Amino acid sequence: MVAVEEFVKKLVDLQYQMNCSRAYWELHPHTLQLRLSPNLPDQICRNKKNILKYISEEGNCEKLVSYLTTRTIQVIYHLNQFINLSIFDKAALHQEYSLFINQLYNLLSQSNQVTKLKDELHRILSEHSSRLRSYLQQIQDREIIPDDPQQLIVCSQYSPEFQLQMLGIDLTELWEPVLDIGCGTSGNLVTYLRNQGFQAYGIDRNIEKADSYLKEADWLELTDILQYGRSGWGTIISHMAFTNHFIHHHMRIDGVPEKYAKAYMSFLLSLRKGGSFFYAPGLPFIEDLLSEQQYEVKRKSIKTHTLYSTQIIKLH
Ligand SMILES: C[S@@+](CC[C@H](N)C(=O)[O-])C[C@H]1O[C@@H](n2cnc3c(N)ncnc32)[C@H](O)[C@@H]1O
Q1: Is the dihedral of CA 224, 291, 287, 254 positive or negative?
Q2: Whose CA is nearest to atom 13 of ligand 1?
Q3: pLDDT tens, residue by residue, 11-29
Q4: Helix pair angle (87-110, 60-79), 10° resolution
Q5: Atom 10, ligand 1: which residue's CA is nearest?
Q6: Which end of the chain is more exposed for a tag (fewer CB within 10 A), N or C?
Q7: Over the stretch 48-78, which tens digit does the pLDDT of each residue have?
Q8: CA of residue 236 to ligand 1 center, whole Å
Q9: Does CATH number 2.60.40.3080 belong to domain 160-314?
């Protein structure tokens, strides 16, 4: 059954790949209409029996539903990094995929004609798209999805060299252990630092392959990892991640800047004496409030922009 599971996941992945390669506005809540990847109906028809058997075995249906839910959450976050799905939003999405897989299962068990099966697959995908449209228009963060479907919100991962340069980090003076908050799905900088022999760790809400040094976690719920090691973190880094979102919440009418401020202070507290928190973009509205006896603030301007990156050194 492992082979069937891999096969089913591959079909799902192809489906996501195909839909995500389309223009951004085709995935907007007002216009979303998912398409079947060209070979999918034939592949499903040819492997109908195995797929049915796989879904009916204990635990597999739930596994598949969770896989689809996670993949869709990743796509939503990728399209708009400022969306934060609540546990209720996630549960509703999970419910939608339970319904969808149930429909698919019934369809596969009832239909014997290939052409009919293909038509029905299109029909259930179209119904699923319509429910997803309603879902996206009802989620807690729906207001921050731009009305203009052409408006793009960029969320990228950057090379380690670029990040170090932007943050003004000199590796010969880097204090360990290092924690990268919002390190990106593949934790580029963490891997780079580890390859250079540094003790580095990363967290992100979306990690491609979690292991002992890359963990999936929300930066507003980091109590465990911040207590790592008695002496505290030598360096905390967050490039185009935590502080970008802090600014977003600072400016947003229904934002939660107080939660970000609390997390920001807990990051500073978790540094060891002399340790640094490097981040970009900078946060003038909170940096100016830090005690001068306790913290030294160093700013590095970024080319011609009004933006800057910051290094906060914990003095005591
Ligand atoms: C623009 S990317 C930057 C990634 C990396 N720091 C870099 O420069 O390549 C922002 C990252 O923040 C992560 N992120 C957004 N909200 C988060 C949250 N609440 N908790 C943890 N990570 C989050 C995203 O998953 C994304 O990987």
Answers
A1: positive
A2: 182
A3: 999 999 999 887 777 778 8
A4: 130
A5: 241
A6: C
A7: 999 999 999 999 999 999 999 999 999 999 8
A8: 14
A9: no
